[in-house]
Amino acid sequence: MPRHSNSALHPLLRKLRQWRALDDADAAAVLALPHVVRAIGAGQVVVWDGDRPQSCCAILSGFAFRHKIASGGVRQILSVHMRGDLVDIHNAMLRVADHNVQMLTEGQIAMIPIDAVLALSAERPRVAEALWYETLVDGAIFREWIVNVGRRDARTRIAHLLCELALRQEQAGLGGRLDYEMPMTQEQIADATGLTAVHVNRMLMGLRTDGLIARTNRSITVADWAQLAAAGDFNPRYLHIPETVLAAPA
Amino acid sequence: MPRHSNSALHPLLRKLRQWRALDDADAAAVLALPHVVRAIGAGQVVVWDGDRPQSCCAILSGFAFRHKIASGGVRQILSVHMRGDLVDIHNAMLRVADHNVQMLTEGQIAMIPIDAVLALSAERPRVAEALWYETLVDGAIFREWIVNVGRRDARTRIAHLLCELALRQEQAGLGGRLDYEMPMTQEQIADATGLTAVHVNRMLMGLRTDGLIARTNRSITVADWAQLAAAGDFNPRYLHIPETVLAAPA
DNA sequence: CGCTCGTTTGATATATTTCAAGAATTGTGG
DNA sequence: CCACAATTCTTGAAATATATCAAACGAGCG
Hints:
The structure is a homodimer of 250-residue chains.
Chain A: H1 10-19, H2 24-31, E1 36-40, E2 45-47, E3 55-61, E4 64-69, E5 75-81, H3 89-93, E6 100-103, E7 107-113, H4 114-123, H5 125-151, H6 154-171, E8 179-181, H7 186-193, H8 197-209, E9 213-216, E10 219-222, H9 225-231, H10 243-247
Antiparallel strand pairs in A: 1-7, 2-6, 3-7, 4-5, 4-6, 8-10, 9-10
The structure holds a DNA duplex (30 and 30 nucleotides).
């Protein structure tokens, strides 16, 4: 049993190890990162656009999202995050935050001083690569979202989002892709897909009446994965999930 | 005069030094990276979606763009790149390319083996940070594009794109923000903004008749920067250009 | 000089938004 | 545990920004 087995940072380590093989010393160093665990309520803002955060934060439980406000006060959601995601390293590394980070649900986050992350990266190239990889996958997801919002119709955008959340929750060990927690309201789905809440509602009902999904409370049940993926023009390659992780059963 | 003063990689070094201070040894190591310079024609594809590139490439001259093809064959342009940009490190690091990279104009690119980049990063933490920073700014630009395509109307999207290209060319030392090369056709602008070429044409004429820009051949002259920035809901903070660089005259 | 590619213009179609209001859930304090 | 408030979801009708289709015009190029 390694030292730090009681560290709160296991979810982060789990994710980093999916990106790059880390030896025991690397893993121990990740777990030994200084951090403060914060319990935080739904809707709470973690970082404001324009802040100069000194820490980045790993999500331990619950869901968060990033968003920006455009002129007229309209909101665009940029990404959704869950257990193991290192959600604010961008803002911390770039000194001045260029977007907001907010909790979608209540949850726990670990605040890690950015200096400690940089020191660890300088010392341990494998960890640096894993961290870099994490932010590169982040970028890959942003690219796919540009396509989603720019070139797909409403129904396709929504189906695509549902597929992404399914696979990422599966990757994070939060359940199977066919039945998972959906922490977003229809208005939030609208802000993530560049639509209005009213139109999201109609499209979601369409997916339901067509028998692709069932929605109960705050969860999604996928009736036919292949059909939903087709409806969402969804090809999971952009998530860069290793074959071994993707293939593993829930 | 440092060694490698005749290296082709000066544009890359220039950019990295804008992100992080590098000492002479770091700089020399960057310039000493193994590379092959390729002259490449307009429209040529550098990397195909699905490839497993072994190299990343720094743009030495000319313009490139990244794009994805969605179902139905529609194209979404993800970003535009110019001198000094390290354009394909994402695809190389992530092993399998998740988007295409193609030349917008003819130009020269330096192909650098990804292994050499990783070795350099492991050896020189400051260089690693600069490279990471470069990819993080890349991500910041993607985020802004999600907002642009998701939550702004046609005229605003186009004005925003024009502002971004102006400032980035200024940053790259390619001219002033008020008069710069515009390497994109209206159809390409459409694919970058999630619109149709016809509509881009109408909006562009609107910006012209309103006296915000003038367009001659393949260049843009900005009549009133403040007005164009306002029309484009443009706040340059997301580019993370250091004050000293942004403030400097063209 | 003729061809190709890019731009411009017009008329019509349509996906999505907007506005409005009622129904269903969820949350909350007593 | 209930009653009330506040979200969230649902539905309908009308408005509009943008897409689509089609054709002419202009410019660069071999």
